[in-house]
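Comment thread on ticket #2218

A.B. wrote:
> Attaching the input chain for the structure job we discussed in standup.
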Amino acid sequence: MSRIQTRKTALLYAPVETFDLAAGPASFALDLCKQHDVALTAMLLNTDMAPLANGQQSNQLANRNVENLAMLRTRCDKDGTEVRTIDTIDHSRGYFPYVNDHARLHDLVICGTDNSYLLSERMVCEAILFDGGRPILLIPHRHAAGYTATHLAVAWDNSRNAARALGDALALLPSVETLTFLVIGDEKTVATSIEPDVLAAIMASRGIKASLRHVKKGARGIGAALQDEARSASADILVMGAFGHSRLRQFVLGGATQEVLGSLQMPVLMSH
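C.D. wrote:
> Ran it. Output below, let me know if you need it in another format.
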């Protein structure tokens, strides 16, 4: 019996304050969906925090969000991308649970990390990483190069989270040709029985050229070091496992995760 290939789906989280079709998460998501025939759900929300300060500003944001929705639908029609849009919240579930309800039904979530607003993208990213159960692709708002994913850099420590992130990336990004495995710091801290030549051979069996790159962290934070080295290797996307745990109902992030969310320099795919 022949097997029908199912279509992938992506959820774009793009609030009115940061929405931009020329660069950033929305632009990247539309490009990715067009190239790989991915069905898109676009969550374009007006978080409506403006009334706390100015009712007129709130009306302007609401009107702008209507315009954003229209522009996105027009672009998707032009690209031939199947799209659903969400512009309201069911508050009976709470804001973050509502976003996660939708995130869990998609293969990938695409979002920015802006932290300028009361209910920020950064907070939503953390909620999805902690409780959404889906990989999230973080895109800097200044990123105007569009979607490319032929070369991935993988933050590699041979952990479960790193393996999960690698598997998600290879399943979701079918254009991968090259992998650079990044080991930051003392290579003896990576417990593995796999030698670099074996790693390369296993990836070669998938049609992917792979290499291991070991560099010292130096005075850099781990998040900065990972992004520096990924860009130095000319990688399109950095792939990494996200670490976090709940303590007294607060989301506590691992060092690398925290640093990347706080200073995003390139597209980063995170899985938890």
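A.B. wrote:
> Thanks. Noting for the ticket: Residues 169 and 194 are 20 Å apart (CA to CA).
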